[in-house]
UniProtKB/TrEMBL annotation:
Known cofactor(s): Mo-bis(molybdopterin guanine dinucleotide); [4Fe-4S] cluster; FAD
Keyword flag Metal-binding: yes
Keyword 4Fe-4S: yes
Organism the protein comes from: Mucilaginibacter gynuensis
Family: Belongs to the prokaryotic molybdopterin-containing oxidoreductase family. NasA/NapA/NarB subfamily.
Protein name: 4Fe-4S Mo/W bis-MGD-type domain-containing protein
4Fe-4S Mo/W bis-MGD-type domain: residues covered: 6-62
Source organism, top-level taxon: Bacteria
Keywords attached to this entry: 4Fe-4S, FAD, Flavoprotein, Iron, Iron-sulfur, Metal-binding, Molybdenum, Nitrate assimilation, Oxidoreductase
Full-protein positions shown: 3 to 705 of 1170
Amino acid sequence: SKKNTDTRATSICCYCGVGCGVLINKEKNGSITVEGDKNYPVNKGMLCSKGMNLHYTVNDKSDRLLYPQMRYNKSMPMQRVSWDEALDRTAAVFKTFINKYGPDSVAFYASGQCLTEEYYVINKLIKGFIGSNNMDTNSRLCMSSAVAGYKMALGEDCVPVCYDDIELADLFYVTGANPAWCHPILWRRVEAHKAANPNVRLIVVDPRVTDTCAIADLHLQINPGTDVTLNHAIGRVLIENGDIDAHFVQNHTEGFEKYSALVFQRTVAEASRICGVTESDIRLAALYIGEAKGFITMWTMGLNQSVVGVNKNLSLINLNLITGHIGKPGSGPLSLTGQPNAMGGREVGGLANLLPAHRDMNNPLHREEVQKFWGGTTINPKPGLTATEMFEALNDGRLKAIWILCTNPLTSMPNVRMVEEALKKAKYVVVQEISNKPETLQYADVILPAAAWAEKEGTMTNSERRISYLNKVVEPPGEALPDSEIICRFARKMGYNGFDYKDAAAIYAEHAKLTAKTNIDISGLNYDILKENRSVQWPYLKKRYIKDSSRLFTDKQFYTPSRKARIHAVPDEFTSERADNDFPFILTTGRIRDQWHTMSKTGKVNKLNQHYQQAFVEIHPDDAARLAIGEGEVAVITSRRGEVHVKVRLSAQIKQGVIFLPMHWGKILGNDLNRANNLTNDIIDPISKEPDFKYCAVNVVKF
Ligand code: SF4
């Protein structure tokens, strides 16, 4: 109640990339409650089930790590130590490895849930001072295909639209996404807009009938992995119908001739057979696009998490480009970011192939600029190990030490049993965590307790380039510290200068300065402005001569050298694992409505566990009948990499021959048979290095 409320602070929900504004009320007894912020432009007071229950995760400290722990060798038990002991020893071990095996023998594996300031200091530490680019995050498993797609098509990793374009669009093409469950508040805006405007249309592309399809005018239930073929076929029909924007294509794009020649190599009838949707539905989709005045494409993991994820992204962005639906109200590509701050992480260069402010690692001038700014060591031109590559390198001994923070790879990585083997072999594992639950802790040599959401301040950037400040409201429990503080203390133990920040605002100021004169320039931004304005979208220059930054490319000038957007003629090749007699089903994985990632937070909330209480597999009733498995019976699912035993849910809403497993469950009391990623394949997209989570061959039998 208001009477008991002590203070009230603004923040942002720490789950998905929608980035809803939250008000945190601190009660007199020290606990918190949350409510949606009515004044925040993204959600206008709304929160989804996960956001509404955020306070439980803060108030319930029962699983929190409270103090640093360490073991001196693998056969010794963990013991409580001081921060100094833990960090002194870790610095000594890191120095030994770096001296003996070189800087690339150590790595940091972080998270799209880190705050921007945290990303910044880790990136600075390893790239600018240790001299390795071995810093990657779980954003590699999430958005890296979209990053590459944007960069190749538009010359920059940028979402050109803003959420307010939703209310200006009259056609949404949602593909490889179930925003009704995974980006709920953004989806409420689409639903409300469509309900109020009967002319607004929705096309959904998904191998499953999801809740997102409930309001669809057209659902293309494609065969998994055939997205490029479908998008090309739609492109072909648009060209045939004369429904492209010839003036825009001519003046503001390059590559159209090659693209046009390519898409005409396959007939619509052929595409229809490959994709498993009717020719008339493909033509209808193209017709809707041709008639649209405002056309927004939306996508997420269904396109990104693929061995051809970049091609899928490019084939989709092509539809915006050939129709000229970009840089104008209600039009453009809108990738739905999975995590709350994958965008902020990229802004500071927090991936193994990036430098701060989206600078290129392979550009010597960019490397020199950053190196001079940081005043550390020479920046290595060679990209570092990406997420899956790090664990391969631990397995074969190239990598000696890994520092894992804010993520739970033993549930979330593909081919996860291999990852577990890798952690067993690692010489030194640091786990920086809030909870005592993640399985990674079992392999840790050092455990560092971190502060959680609302226990530290910092910034995040959501899917529409909106940067927001998150307040600290409560003290972290025990000796837990903010992640940036832990990293800075460690850097000082390593003897590096430049990690003596007064506070998070000072880290942010340094980051902002380093963005000057780049496409993502926020050199005019600081904590005072963020606190006063609540949020701003980038770019945000020192001299505010730039016009409104809510929508990019309104001048049709793209970030490529020619200033033209690039239409890429990407092949529709198939390079996933093929189903065969031994493994005849296709497995696709995904989320459920009320859980977040590996459940270390949402799994604590009783209300959220009611939706689905345990892992399950969704199978088409005809497939189940052939296998003689009934509803609720246990199925044994095997792939070339592992097995899973879970209860069956029959669903006519999935294609025959395809099964679906939620990705949230990990090991439970030593039993890993609920873990979907035992089965998934760790082959990766050659450009984005994102794994093929949405497609692998499996067998299903009754237990
Ligand atoms: Fe949080 Fe996303 Fe739900 Fe908004 S939609 S409340 S950001 S989980």
